[in-house]
């Protein structure tokens, strides 16, 4: 019998009962094997798998490549260019909706936003390299005894909260305090690592302005009220930040295109320098250029030696059917296609969300030749019309500007940390 070649011959002849048990055993194995093989082929041919192209996991996903001996990611990689892919087998998010620092309007899981759990299953894949996976414990160990400051509007707070929740998930020894004019800050005590958020809308100091009954240059031009913006004075909330932090991430832009706040007729921006109004008055676009140049110079002058400076590009909005105060909404459940992105954001279309790329042009020009490095999150974010709080934001209108947490700002922090590790 052929099967005899696979067994050692016993030293004594088998009894008749032993022989019977042996054949029964072999028969069971054979029948079981036949059943399993038949089941496999039946399942394969009767129910072939349906695979969407975007659900295919790329090779080397989230694996550090081109690293140096210290594990730092190569600076040659452009993490900002790539595409999103859907990964249904994604690991649990790095933190969840129980993180208390998440602003209620951004907590899309707790707010029962439709598809909130799907948002984190989309992964960013750079075109020519892999994005290193964020390791919060390694980050805490690597950046002991330093301070990281986020300076900007609520979109920078969105990013700050993402980083805090990621780190808080792995350590409970945290102190909350308010150094250097911060809105809020946390120190992870075991590592003496501080992360802080400084709230500022325009970077420059601003406040209400009303015409003087005694007259003046602005009054002579017919201005009765508006907002005074001092282009050469940083807002007090962050003025001390450059001398305090080791790493700074700045942003601005959304408030510069906010007619509900700075109405060009009823409440215009009135720019001042050296305490005096700039005559003729500047348009907001020119005013933004002046403020950016002044603030970049101020930060370079006041920063401690060795401070790492980033300027984050504009976070895109995704209002459809009108702006936020015109019934606009963001009903998407998946990222946009490349063609849809261009329809949303092409400057030539002059659409609702067009300011994103316009602001970036101002930022690029302002930091040219400076110590600032660009943290480019715009392109990757333009695709993610599905990742906003939408109607779950708790407002009277859809929130298509901020981002759900957990969500896309986690990936912003991946880019930030990858770039930071390539320099330190």
Automatic annotation (TrEMBL):
Compartments, record wording: Membrane
Membrane topology value: Single-pass membrane protein
Domain Trichome birefringence-like C-terminal, residue spans: 131-418
Cellular component per GO, a single term: Golgi apparatus
Annotated GO MF terms: O-acetyltransferase activity
Predominant localisation class: membrane
Entry keywords, A to Z: Membrane, Signal-anchor, Transmembrane, Transmembrane helix
Highest taxon above the source species: Eukaryota
The Trichome birefringence-like N-terminal domain, residue ranges: 76-129
Pfam families cross-referenced by the UniProt entry: PC-Esterase, PMR5N
Membrane-spanning ranges: 21-43
PANTHER family on file: PROTEIN TRICHOME BIREFRINGENCE-LIKE 13, PROTEIN TRICHOME BIREFRINGENCE-LIKE 9-RELATED
Family: Belongs to the PC-esterase family. TBL subfamily.
Name of the molecule in the record: Trichome birefringence-like N-terminal domain-containing protein
Organism: Lactuca virosa
Higher taxonomy: Eukaryota, Viridiplantae, Streptophyta, Embryophyta, Tracheophyta
């Amino acid at each position: 019998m052929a099967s005899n070649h696979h067994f050692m011959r016993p030293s004594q002849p088998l009894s008749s009962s032993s022989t019977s048990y042996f054949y029964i055993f072999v028969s069971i194995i054979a029948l079981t094997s036949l059943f399993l093989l038949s089941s496999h082929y039946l399942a394969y041919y009767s129910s072939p798998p349906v695979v969407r192209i975007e659900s295919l996991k790329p090779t080397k996903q989230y694996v550090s490549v081109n690293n140096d001996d210290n594990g730092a990611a190569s600076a040659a990689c452009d993490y900002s260019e790539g595409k999103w892919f859907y990964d249904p087998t994604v690991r649990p998010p790095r933190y969840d909706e129980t993180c208390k620092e998440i602003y209620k309007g951004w907590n899309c899981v707790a707010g029962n936003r439709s598809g909130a759990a799907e948002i984190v299953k989309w992964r960013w894949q750079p075109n020519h390299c892999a994005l290193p996976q964020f390791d919060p414990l390694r980050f805490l160990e690597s950046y002991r005894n330093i301070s990281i400051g986020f300076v900007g509007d609520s979109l920078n707070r969105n990013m700050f909260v993402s980083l805090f929740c990621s780190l808080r998930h792995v350590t409970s020894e945290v102190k909350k305090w308010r150094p250097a004019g911060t809105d809020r800050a946390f120190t992870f005590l075991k590592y003496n690592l501080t992360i802080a958020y400084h709230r500022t809308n325009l970077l420059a100091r601003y406040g209400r302005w009303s015409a003087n009954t005694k007259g003046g240059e602005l009054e002579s031009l017919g201005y009765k009220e508006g907002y005074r913006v001092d282009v050469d004075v940083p807002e007090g909330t962050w003025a001390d930040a450059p001398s305090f932090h080791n790493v700074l991430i700045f942003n601005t832009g959304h408030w510069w295109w906010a007619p509900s706040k700075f109405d060009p007729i009823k409440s215009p921006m009135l720019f001042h320098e050296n305490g005096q109004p700039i005559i003729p008055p500047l348009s907001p676009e020119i005013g933004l250029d002046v403020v950016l140049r002044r603030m970049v110079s101020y930060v370079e002058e006041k920063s401690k030696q060795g401070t790492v400076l980033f300027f984050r590009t504009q976070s895109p909005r995704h209002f459809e059917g009108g702006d936020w105060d015109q019934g606009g909404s963001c009903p998407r459940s998946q990222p946009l296609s490349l063609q849809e992105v261009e329809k949303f954001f092409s400057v030539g279309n002059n659409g609702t969300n067009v300011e994103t790329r316009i602001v970036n042009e101002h930022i690029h020009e302002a930091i040219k030749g400076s110590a600032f490095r660009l943290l480019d999150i715009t392109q990757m974010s333009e695709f993610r019309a599905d990742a906003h709080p939408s109607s779950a934001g708790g407002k009277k209108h859809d929130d298509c500007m901020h981002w759900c947490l957990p969500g896309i700002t986690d990936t912003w922090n991946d880019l930030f940390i990858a770039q930071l590790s390539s320099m330190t």
